[in-house]
Amino acid sequence: MSRSISEECNNLKKEYDACFNKWYSEKFLKGDCNPECDEIFAAYRECVLSAVKSKQIDKLLADARKEDPFAKVASSDEKK
Q1: End-to-end CA distance of the chain
Q2: Domain residue spans in the chain?
Q3: I want to staple 13 with a disulfide (CB 3.0 to 4.6 A). Which of 4, 37, 50, 65 is the partner?
Q4: Beta-carbon count within 10 A of 20 CB
Q5: pLDDT tens digit at each of 80 positions of the chain
Q6: CB–CB of 16/40 below 8 Å?
Q7: C-alpha span between 8 and 49 (Å, rounded)
Q8: Concatenated DSSP letters of the chain
């Protein structure tokens, strides 16, 4: 598995990946759609969001969203 965006989040990512892979292969593929890893995912998500903010990646994302390049691509695709 790959590493997380921040060293502090690696253990949570590893724990979530293991939980998800086990749930997916042992439950979901057999028809059980009840999620089992929500708490671990929430903790991992909070860690990632904190890392994004501390590394100031959130500002880069906000600037990229202002440019909205995907709207231009979607508009040109609709004309085809």
Answers
A1: 40
A2: 7-78
A3: 4
A4: 16
A5: 689 999 999 999 999 999 999 999 999 999 999 999 999 999 999 999 999 999 999 999 888 888 876 766 555 556 55
A6: yes
A7: 12
A8: ----SSGGGHHHHHHHHHHHHHHHHHTGGGT------HHHHHHHHHHHHHHHHHTTHHHHHHHHHHH-HHHHHHHHHHT-
